[in-house]
Write a structure and sequence with these properties.
By secondary structure, this protein is α+β, with helices and mostly antiparallel strands. The protein contains 3 helices and 4 strands. Helix content is 36%, strand content 11%. A hairpin with a 5-residue loop joins strand 1 and strand 2.
């Protein structure tokens, strides 16, 4: 899938996925595979309207839970956690000496 993730000089993160790539991703999701016993083939879904499918995926990305979070929020939560676990620079925690005296609260 030709998904691109870029960061601008100002630090803005942009994620871009073309509708053709969403179509390709749907075909490669193994949970949608169906084994056809007659032919012995593994059948995959067909995206018949890439624009409509992209719109449906867009709506799912923006669908809010009761607390206002979306799949995208959870994706960023996971990416932040993984970055920290991998030793990300540019973040300090209250236990770190670089944290300083002034506390940061929500």
């Amino acid at each position: 899938m030709a998904l691109t993730v870029k960061i601008s000089k100002s630090g803005a993160i942009t994620i871009r996925v073309r509708k053709a790539d969403l179509k390709r991703a749907a075909v490669w999701l193994t949970e949608f595979e169906h084994y056809d016993e007659k032919s012995g083939d593994i059948l995959v879904p067909k995206v018949t309207d890439p624009a409509a499918f992209a719109k449906a995926v867009y709506h799912q990305l923006n669908d809010e839970e009761e607390d206002g979070t979306t799949i995208v929020h959870r994706m960023f939560d996971d990416a932040i956690k993984e970055a920290v676990e991998q030793g990300a620079e540019g973040i300090v925690f209250p236990d770190d000496k670089e944290y300083g005296r002034k506390s940061v609260a929500r």
